[in-house]
Specification:
The protein has 490 residues and is of the alpha+beta class. Helix content is 43%, strand content 18%. The protein is built from twelve helices and 16 strands. Strands 12-11-10-13-14 form a five-stranded mixed sheet, sandwiched between helices. A hairpin with a 4-residue loop joins strand 11 and strand 12 (271-272). It binds zinc ion (ZN). The site of zinc ion has 8 residues, from loops. Zinc ion (ZN) is lined by residues 393, 395-396, 398, 412, 414-415, 417.
Length: 490
Amino acid sequence: MNPEVFATYTYPNFANRSKISTVFTILKEYRQTAKNLLQYLWSIFYRGGKLPYRKSLNVKHIQSNLSERYKYVCLWQVYGIFDGYISNLQYQFANMVWRSNLLRDEKLILLALNNLKSWLKYDKDTVIIFDGGETKSVQLTQEHRRLAKKIFKHLVRINREPRIDKISMHLDKKVCDIVGKQPDKAKLFDYWLKLSTLERGNPIYIPLNKNTYAESLEGKFKNFYQIVEKNEEIVIKRVKELSKREYIPLTDKISIDIGLNPLFASNKGDLIGRKFIDFLKILDEKITSRMRILQKNGIKPKQDNRYVKLINRLRDFLKNEINRLLNNIIKLYRPKQIVIERLDFRSPKLSRRLNRLIQNFGKRYIKEKLRRLKGLYNVEIIEINPAYTSQECSSCGYIDKRNRKDIQTFKCKVCGNKINAQVNGAKNILNRSSINELGIHLSKKKVLKMLVERYLEKYKGCKSAALDTIVSNPYFKDYLGGILNPGRLE
Ligand SMILES: [Zn+2]
């Protein structure tokens, strides 16, 4: 079974200064409490040799201005952090023991103690070790105990303590919840976040707007909220568990060529996201003209609300489109594998600034989306080497700069194959996924060599490109020894 897929989504909030300052007051107390709780967890860990179950912990005596309910919410977060920290030490412990030059039996005993997280205390005299497929009980010596403690303490020394002084608040329904529109308030906002404060019975309400993207994803919102401090503002996030449905693949592999016009082409000939570039062009003009004004007045773009809004629109657009269009591909073909080339999409039709922005955001969103598809449906993602996929003929394999008639069209100089340039790219991407030698890190030069040699080998002596075409193609310059041999050309 796949691990659950949880994701967090930001909900735009409109807290005024007074509410923000209330949140910061809570946050300050929350962090102080977290620090005390962590100290307390360490003390029981050292006293008892291990961490007790979370639910059996009693922290009534820990001083805090947070309500008891708040304190427990905080405890659960701190417990999670501490537990993660200990698990990491456990992992390092195992590595260290494996790589040591201890005797095999000693290693197995230490690993058994490590599995039980009993580095500091172990009550029994024997321990069960796993050797090959068998389990057996062995006697524990003082030396074993001493060694386990020593290694563990060493690891605690070399690993920094979990950072807790800057944590965000991970809150649940006990202290924080989303409520619908307030009957007596203006209908300006979609929701309100009701947040308990340090004053009992006196919550604050923070206006929120929808996150349509998060709400469009299939799944279930959990009753968890994150409140993050960022540049003296607060960011509010909701947690959603994305649903995994039964997924029976219909297609083995689908390859995608990522461009901007359209956004995706598949090896099946689909052109998906054809209006993509038009919207980007409009946005590009707006951003560029805004930038001009800002530059003239010496204002930093990040300080300008309008500019920030435009950039947010660009991000939302990219995110929504990438999500929607990849979902289409999944719906249409239900592939087992998706083959892509290294992500790189730019367009000469857009400004340098927009190309850079798209490059950054687009890459991130596609990666996130693919990761999610993997989590939800177990779709395997394969990356291939992108060199020359736009100049190679997907039908005969002939590779030539002149095969590109224009940005949209591909026409092979040799076999006459005429096809949308991006679909041609997608077909090449698919072919490459089954050529093992064409590794993703191979240099462009080596890729070219391999492709040209493959081509010449395939058509040795017959049906190869017309000689004048090949001779005038610089790519073939170094490989024509055999072809130019007159005996072969008859
Ligand atoms: Zn061809």
